[in-house]
Batch of 2 targets.
Target 1
Amino acid sequence: MKRLVGFILIGLGVVVLNVSAEEKKNPADANGDGKVSKQEYCDREAAKAKRDGKEYNQAEAEKKFAKKDKDGNGFLEGDELISKPKTPAAPAAPKSE
Ligand SMILES: [Ca+2]
Ligand SMILES: [Ca+2]
Protein backbone atom coordinates (compact mmCIF):
# COMPACT_ATOMS: atom_id res chain seq x y z
CA MET A 1 0.00 0.00 0.00
CA LYS A 2 2.83 2.38 0.90
CA ARG A 3 4.31 1.60 -2.46
CA LEU A 4 1.07 2.52 -4.17
CA VAL A 5 0.99 5.87 -2.37
CA GLY A 6 4.55 6.47 -3.53
CA PHE A 7 3.58 5.76 -7.10
CA ILE A 8 0.63 8.11 -6.83
CA LEU A 9 2.85 10.86 -5.45
CA ILE A 10 5.38 10.36 -8.24
CA GLY A 11 2.53 10.44 -10.72
CA LEU A 12 1.25 13.69 -9.26
CA GLY A 13 4.75 15.14 -9.37
CA VAL A 14 5.06 14.30 -13.04
CA VAL A 15 1.70 15.89 -13.75
CA VAL A 16 2.65 19.04 -11.84
CA LEU A 17 5.96 19.24 -13.70
CA ASN A 18 4.20 18.81 -17.04
CA VAL A 19 1.67 21.49 -16.21
CA SER A 20 4.30 24.00 -15.17
CA ALA A 21 6.27 23.23 -18.32
CA GLU A 22 3.19 23.93 -20.41
CA GLU A 23 2.38 27.15 -18.60
CA LYS A 24 5.67 28.65 -19.59
CA LYS A 25 5.96 32.19 -18.42
CA ASN A 26 5.43 34.63 -21.20
CA PRO A 27 8.65 36.60 -21.69
CA ALA A 28 6.67 39.82 -21.68
CA ASP A 29 5.10 38.97 -18.31
CA ALA A 30 7.62 40.85 -16.19
CA ASN A 31 5.95 40.35 -12.82
CA GLY A 32 4.89 36.76 -13.54
CA ASP A 33 1.20 37.16 -12.74
CA GLY A 34 0.28 35.19 -15.86
CA LYS A 35 -0.98 38.12 -17.85
CA VAL A 36 0.69 40.87 -19.78
CA SER A 37 -0.34 44.39 -18.93
CA LYS A 38 -0.11 47.22 -21.41
CA GLN A 39 2.91 48.50 -19.51
CA GLU A 40 4.65 45.14 -19.72
CA TYR A 41 3.82 44.87 -23.40
CA CYS A 42 5.11 48.34 -24.17
CA ASP A 43 8.24 47.73 -22.11
CA ARG A 44 8.90 44.63 -24.14
CA GLU A 45 8.24 46.37 -27.43
CA ALA A 46 10.65 49.12 -26.35
CA ALA A 47 13.29 46.54 -25.44
CA LYS A 48 12.80 44.77 -28.77
CA ALA A 49 13.09 48.02 -30.71
CA LYS A 50 16.25 48.86 -28.81
CA ARG A 51 17.70 45.42 -29.47
CA ASP A 52 16.93 45.72 -33.18
CA GLY A 53 18.27 49.24 -33.33
CA LYS A 54 14.85 50.61 -34.25
CA GLU A 55 13.05 53.59 -32.92
CA TYR A 56 10.39 52.67 -30.37
CA ASN A 57 6.94 53.94 -31.18
CA GLN A 58 4.71 54.05 -28.09
CA ALA A 59 1.54 54.77 -30.08
CA GLU A 60 2.26 51.86 -32.40
CA ALA A 61 2.92 49.53 -29.46
CA GLU A 62 -0.34 50.57 -27.82
CA LYS A 63 -2.19 50.01 -31.06
CA LYS A 64 -0.71 46.52 -31.34
CA PHE A 65 -1.59 45.84 -27.72
CA ALA A 66 -5.19 46.94 -28.26
CA LYS A 67 -5.43 44.64 -31.27
CA LYS A 68 -4.20 41.68 -29.21
CA ASP A 69 -6.38 42.53 -26.23
CA LYS A 70 -9.52 41.08 -27.75
CA ASP A 71 -11.76 41.49 -24.70
CA GLY A 72 -10.34 44.92 -24.00
CA ASN A 73 -9.68 44.35 -20.29
CA GLY A 74 -6.23 45.91 -20.45
CA PHE A 75 -4.39 42.61 -20.07
CA LEU A 76 -3.27 39.96 -22.48
CA GLU A 77 -4.06 36.56 -21.04
CA GLY A 78 -4.90 33.05 -22.17
CA ASP A 79 -5.61 32.86 -25.89
CA GLU A 80 -4.72 36.51 -26.34
CA LEU A 81 -1.10 35.61 -25.66
CA ILE A 82 -1.05 32.98 -28.39
CA SER A 83 0.03 34.78 -31.50
CA LYS A 84 0.15 31.71 -33.72
CA PRO A 85 -1.65 32.14 -37.00
CA LYS A 86 -4.59 29.84 -37.66
CA THR A 87 -2.94 28.37 -40.73
CA PRO A 88 0.55 27.10 -39.97
CA ALA A 89 3.27 29.11 -41.62
CA ALA A 90 5.65 27.48 -44.05
CA PRO A 91 8.15 25.50 -41.97
CA ALA A 92 11.06 26.95 -43.93
CA ALA A 93 10.24 30.50 -42.84
CA PRO A 94 12.91 31.77 -40.46
CA LYS A 95 11.75 32.91 -37.05
CA SER A 96 12.15 36.60 -36.49
CA GLU A 97 11.95 36.31 -32.71
CA1 LIG B 1 2.23 40.61 -15.72
CA1 LIG C 1 -7.66 40.78 -22.44
Target 2
Amino acid sequence: MDKFSSLIKLLPALLPLAMAAGTVRAADGGITYQEMADGLHMVMEADRTVYTRMVVNRLQNEEKVIKASEHFKDDKALPLPAQMFRFGSEMVAEKKPAFSYSLLSLWPINKQNAGKTPVEKEGLQAVAAKPDQPFYKEETLGGKKYYTAIYADRAVSQACVSCHNGHKESPRTDFKLGEAMGGVVIRLPMK
Ligand code: HEC
Protein backbone atom coordinates (compact mmCIF):
# COMPACT_ATOMS: atom_id res chain seq x y z
CA MET A 1 0.00 0.00 0.00
CA ASP A 2 2.79 2.37 1.00
CA LYS A 3 4.76 1.62 -2.13
CA PHE A 4 1.64 2.17 -4.18
CA SER A 5 0.73 5.55 -2.69
CA SER A 6 4.29 6.82 -2.98
CA LEU A 7 4.22 5.68 -6.60
CA ILE A 8 1.09 7.73 -7.15
CA LYS A 9 2.72 10.79 -5.54
CA LEU A 10 5.70 10.36 -7.84
CA LEU A 11 3.49 10.09 -10.88
CA PRO A 12 3.82 13.66 -12.19
CA ALA A 13 7.59 13.22 -12.22
CA LEU A 14 7.45 9.72 -13.68
CA LEU A 15 4.87 10.34 -16.34
CA PRO A 16 7.08 12.03 -18.94
CA LEU A 17 9.56 9.16 -18.52
CA ALA A 18 6.83 6.57 -18.87
CA MET A 19 5.43 8.27 -21.93
CA ALA A 20 8.87 8.51 -23.47
CA ALA A 21 9.15 4.75 -22.93
CA GLY A 22 5.98 4.29 -25.00
CA THR A 23 3.68 3.60 -22.07
CA VAL A 24 -0.01 4.11 -22.71
CA ARG A 25 -1.72 6.52 -20.34
CA ALA A 26 -4.98 5.52 -18.71
CA ALA A 27 -8.00 7.26 -20.21
CA ASP A 28 -8.63 9.32 -17.05
CA GLY A 29 -5.13 10.80 -17.21
CA GLY A 30 -4.15 9.12 -13.93
CA ILE A 31 -2.13 6.00 -13.41
CA THR A 32 -1.03 4.27 -16.61
CA TYR A 33 -2.21 0.82 -17.65
CA GLN A 34 1.32 -0.43 -17.26
CA GLU A 35 1.65 0.91 -13.71
CA MET A 36 -1.71 -0.62 -12.77
CA ALA A 37 -0.68 -4.03 -14.16
CA ASP A 38 2.79 -3.83 -12.56
CA GLY A 39 1.28 -3.01 -9.15
CA LEU A 40 -1.23 -5.87 -9.32
CA HIS A 41 1.50 -8.25 -10.39
CA MET A 42 3.81 -7.20 -7.56
CA VAL A 43 1.20 -8.28 -5.00
CA MET A 44 0.35 -11.54 -6.82
CA GLU A 45 4.00 -12.52 -7.13
CA ALA A 46 4.73 -11.77 -3.47
CA ASP A 47 1.76 -13.85 -2.25
CA ARG A 48 2.63 -16.71 -4.58
CA THR A 49 6.29 -16.77 -3.54
CA VAL A 50 5.47 -16.58 0.17
CA TYR A 51 2.96 -19.46 -0.07
CA THR A 52 5.42 -21.64 -1.96
CA ARG A 53 8.43 -20.93 0.25
CA MET A 54 6.88 -20.57 3.70
CA VAL A 55 4.13 -23.18 3.39
CA VAL A 56 4.68 -25.72 0.59
CA ASN A 57 8.45 -25.96 0.42
CA ARG A 58 8.92 -25.75 4.19
CA LEU A 59 6.25 -28.28 5.19
CA GLN A 60 6.51 -30.67 2.24
CA ASN A 61 10.15 -30.62 1.13
CA GLU A 62 12.09 -29.53 4.21
CA GLU A 63 10.12 -30.72 7.23
CA LYS A 64 8.15 -33.48 5.48
CA VAL A 65 5.03 -32.81 7.57
CA ILE A 66 2.37 -32.62 4.85
CA LYS A 67 2.29 -32.84 1.06
CA ALA A 68 0.78 -30.53 -1.54
CA SER A 69 -1.61 -32.29 -3.91
CA GLU A 70 -4.02 -31.54 -6.74
CA HIS A 71 -6.57 -33.66 -4.82
CA PHE A 72 -5.90 -31.80 -1.61
CA LYS A 73 -9.36 -32.44 -0.11
CA ASP A 74 -9.31 -36.23 -0.56
CA ASP A 75 -5.63 -36.41 0.32
CA LYS A 76 -5.97 -34.01 3.30
CA ALA A 77 -3.06 -32.13 1.75
CA LEU A 78 -2.08 -28.54 0.92
CA PRO A 79 -3.50 -26.97 -2.26
CA LEU A 80 -0.89 -26.51 -4.98
CA PRO A 81 0.52 -23.01 -5.49
CA ALA A 82 -1.23 -22.86 -8.90
CA GLN A 83 -4.55 -23.81 -7.27
CA MET A 84 -4.14 -21.10 -4.61
CA PHE A 85 -3.51 -18.63 -7.42
CA ARG A 86 -6.57 -19.76 -9.38
CA PHE A 87 -8.88 -19.74 -6.34
CA GLY A 88 -7.84 -16.12 -5.76
CA SER A 89 -8.41 -15.20 -9.38
CA GLU A 90 -11.85 -16.89 -9.37
CA MET A 91 -12.86 -15.03 -6.22
CA VAL A 92 -11.79 -11.74 -7.79
CA ALA A 93 -13.72 -12.60 -10.99
CA GLU A 94 -16.93 -13.11 -8.97
CA LYS A 95 -16.72 -9.45 -7.95
CA LYS A 96 -16.75 -8.45 -11.62
CA PRO A 97 -13.75 -6.16 -11.42
CA ALA A 98 -12.27 -4.25 -14.33
CA PHE A 99 -9.49 -6.81 -14.85
CA SER A 100 -8.75 -10.50 -14.97
CA TYR A 101 -5.66 -12.65 -14.46
CA SER A 102 -4.41 -16.18 -14.96
CA LEU A 103 -1.33 -18.39 -14.83
CA LEU A 104 -0.35 -19.95 -18.16
CA SER A 105 2.64 -21.77 -19.65
CA LEU A 106 4.21 -23.04 -22.86
CA TRP A 107 4.75 -26.34 -20.99
CA PRO A 108 1.48 -26.77 -19.04
CA ILE A 109 0.74 -29.76 -16.80
CA ASN A 110 -2.93 -28.85 -17.24
CA LYS A 111 -3.63 -28.28 -20.96
CA GLN A 112 -6.20 -25.63 -20.01
CA ASN A 113 -3.25 -23.48 -18.95
CA ALA A 114 -1.69 -23.20 -22.40
CA GLY A 115 -1.68 -19.75 -24.06
CA LYS A 116 -4.74 -19.32 -26.29
CA THR A 117 -4.79 -15.85 -27.88
CA PRO A 118 -1.94 -14.81 -30.24
CA VAL A 119 -0.87 -12.16 -27.69
CA GLU A 120 -0.72 -14.75 -24.89
CA LYS A 121 1.41 -17.06 -27.04
CA GLU A 122 3.73 -14.24 -28.11
CA GLY A 123 4.07 -12.97 -24.53
CA LEU A 124 4.78 -16.42 -23.05
CA GLN A 125 7.58 -16.88 -25.60
CA ALA A 126 8.95 -13.43 -24.84
CA VAL A 127 9.08 -13.85 -21.04
CA ALA A 128 10.51 -17.38 -21.35
CA ALA A 129 13.39 -15.93 -23.41
CA LYS A 130 13.84 -12.81 -21.21
CA PRO A 131 12.32 -13.38 -17.75
CA ASP A 132 13.41 -9.95 -16.45
CA GLN A 133 11.50 -8.11 -19.15
CA PRO A 134 7.68 -8.05 -18.81
CA PHE A 135 5.69 -8.13 -22.03
CA TYR A 136 2.97 -5.53 -22.76
CA LYS A 137 0.58 -5.41 -25.72
CA GLU A 138 -2.88 -4.20 -26.64
CA GLU A 139 -5.28 -6.84 -27.91
CA THR A 140 -8.84 -6.88 -29.18
CA LEU A 141 -11.05 -9.73 -28.00
CA GLY A 142 -14.76 -9.99 -28.80
CA GLY A 143 -14.69 -6.42 -30.16
CA LYS A 144 -13.24 -5.02 -26.90
CA LYS A 145 -9.81 -3.53 -26.48
CA TYR A 146 -7.54 -4.76 -23.66
CA TYR A 147 -4.12 -3.92 -22.29
CA THR A 148 -2.44 -7.26 -21.69
CA ALA A 149 0.65 -7.59 -19.49
CA ILE A 150 2.58 -10.86 -19.14
CA TYR A 151 5.22 -11.52 -16.46
CA ALA A 152 7.58 -14.49 -16.14
CA ASP A 153 6.51 -16.99 -13.48
CA ARG A 154 9.77 -18.24 -12.04
CA ALA A 155 10.82 -21.35 -10.19
CA VAL A 156 11.39 -19.47 -6.93
CA SER A 157 11.78 -22.62 -4.86
CA GLN A 158 13.01 -26.20 -5.26
CA ALA A 159 9.41 -27.33 -4.71
CA CYS A 160 8.41 -25.79 -8.09
CA VAL A 161 11.14 -27.60 -9.97
CA SER A 162 10.85 -31.03 -8.37
CA CYS A 163 7.08 -31.22 -8.62
CA HIS A 164 6.87 -30.14 -12.29
CA ASN A 165 9.87 -32.18 -13.45
CA GLY A 166 8.46 -35.28 -11.73
CA HIS A 167 4.80 -34.83 -12.74
CA LYS A 168 3.55 -37.43 -15.21
CA GLU A 169 1.55 -34.85 -17.19
CA SER A 170 4.43 -32.36 -17.47
CA PRO A 171 5.70 -31.90 -21.05
CA ARG A 172 9.04 -30.69 -19.61
CA THR A 173 11.27 -32.40 -17.07
CA ASP A 174 14.36 -30.16 -17.09
CA PHE A 175 13.21 -27.00 -15.28
CA LYS A 176 15.91 -25.36 -13.14
CA LEU A 177 15.72 -23.08 -10.09
CA GLY A 178 15.23 -19.43 -11.12
CA GLU A 179 14.01 -20.23 -14.64
CA ALA A 180 10.69 -19.04 -16.09
CA MET A 181 8.17 -21.90 -15.95
CA GLY A 182 5.26 -19.92 -17.35
CA GLY A 183 3.69 -16.50 -17.16
CA VAL A 184 1.13 -14.47 -15.21
CA VAL A 185 -1.29 -12.81 -17.64
CA ILE A 186 -3.06 -9.63 -16.45
CA ARG A 187 -5.72 -8.14 -18.72
CA LEU A 188 -7.12 -4.63 -18.26
CA PRO A 189 -10.03 -3.35 -20.37
CA MET A 190 -9.12 -0.10 -22.19
CA LYS A 191 -11.40 2.89 -22.45
C1 HEC B 1 3.36 -30.23 -5.60
C2 HEC B 1 3.37 -29.96 -7.03
C3 HEC B 1 3.57 -28.56 -7.54
C4 HEC B 1 4.30 -27.54 -7.00
C5 HEC B 1 5.07 -27.50 -5.69
C6 HEC B 1 4.22 -26.43 -7.96
N1 HEC B 1 3.44 -26.76 -9.01
FE1 HEC B 1 3.01 -25.61 -10.58
N2 HEC B 1 1.51 -26.83 -11.06
C7 HEC B 1 1.34 -28.12 -10.57
C8 HEC B 1 0.16 -28.68 -11.17
C9 HEC B 1 -0.39 -30.10 -10.91
C10 HEC B 1 -0.37 -27.71 -12.04
C11 HEC B 1 -1.64 -27.77 -12.85
C12 HEC B 1 -2.74 -27.28 -11.93
C13 HEC B 1 -4.04 -27.09 -12.64
O1 HEC B 1 -4.27 -26.02 -13.21
O2 HEC B 1 -4.85 -28.02 -12.61
C14 HEC B 1 0.53 -26.56 -11.96
C15 HEC B 1 0.40 -25.41 -12.70
C16 HEC B 1 1.41 -24.49 -12.87
C17 HEC B 1 1.47 -23.48 -13.90
C18 HEC B 1 0.42 -23.26 -15.00
C19 HEC B 1 0.78 -24.11 -16.20
C20 HEC B 1 0.65 -25.59 -15.95
O3 HEC B 1 1.72 -26.25 -15.81
O4 HEC B 1 -0.49 -26.12 -15.90
C21 HEC B 1 2.64 -22.80 -13.74
C22 HEC B 1 3.19 -21.68 -14.59
C23 HEC B 1 3.29 -23.37 -12.57
N3 HEC B 1 2.52 -24.37 -12.06
C24 HEC B 1 4.50 -22.94 -12.07
C25 HEC B 1 4.91 -23.29 -10.79
C26 HEC B 1 5.89 -22.55 -10.02
C27 HEC B 1 6.69 -21.36 -10.50
C28 HEC B 1 5.95 -23.16 -8.79
C29 HEC B 1 6.71 -22.71 -7.58
C30 HEC B 1 6.40 -21.33 -7.17
C31 HEC B 1 5.03 -24.31 -8.83
N4 HEC B 1 4.43 -24.34 -10.05
C32 HEC B 1 4.86 -25.22 -7.79
C33 HEC B 1 2.14 -28.74 -9.64
C34 HEC B 1 3.00 -28.06 -8.81
